[in-house]
Amino acid sequence: KGALIDILYQLLTSKGSTSTIASSHYESLKLLRDNKFDLVIADQNAPHIETSKVIREIKRLQPDLPVALINARGNPGTRDVPIKMGADLTIGRPLEMDRLLSLLSSLLTNEVPH
Predict the structure, then answer these.
(1) Spatial separation of the C-alpha atoms in residues 78 and 90, rounded to whole Å
(2) Which of 20, 52, 103, 104 has the fewest CB atoms below 10 angstroms from its CB?
């Protein structure tokens, strides 16, 4: 896992969330099958995880589970990629933590601005 994941984990935990981190494609899908989650945050740059495959599988298993994708800033072609992946929300880098929390809260209450 990377520094971003550690920061998000600490931030969400400090706000009272129970968070789980998956470090591989297999682990993420096993956790999803064995547990109930309110939200998935996927990092497009996560090592050892093919984010697009994981998101498609999440949506196949639990179509109503919201998925937020943190994507790489400045990567060519990334604007359409999250939509094709099936993410409900895309959050660009650099991350602003207050805005991130606001967007995630909106996603959980089904009030994400389009």
Answers:
(1) 10
(2) 20
User: What does the alpha-carbon distance between residue 17 and residue 80 come to, in Å, rounded to a whole number?
Assistant: 30
Which residues are CB-contacts of 79 (< 8 A; sequence separation ≥ 6)?
none
> Are the C-beta atoms of 19 and 9 separated by less than 8 Å?
yes
Structure confidence by residue, pLDDT tens digits, 52-72: 888 999 999 899 999 998 886
Q: CA triplet 13, 41, 47: central angle to 5 degrees?
A: 105
Residue with token string 């072609």? 77
Task: Look up residue 95 and give its amino acid.
Answer: L
Q: In what order do the strands lie in the sheet with 67-71?
A: 40-43, 67-71, 89-92
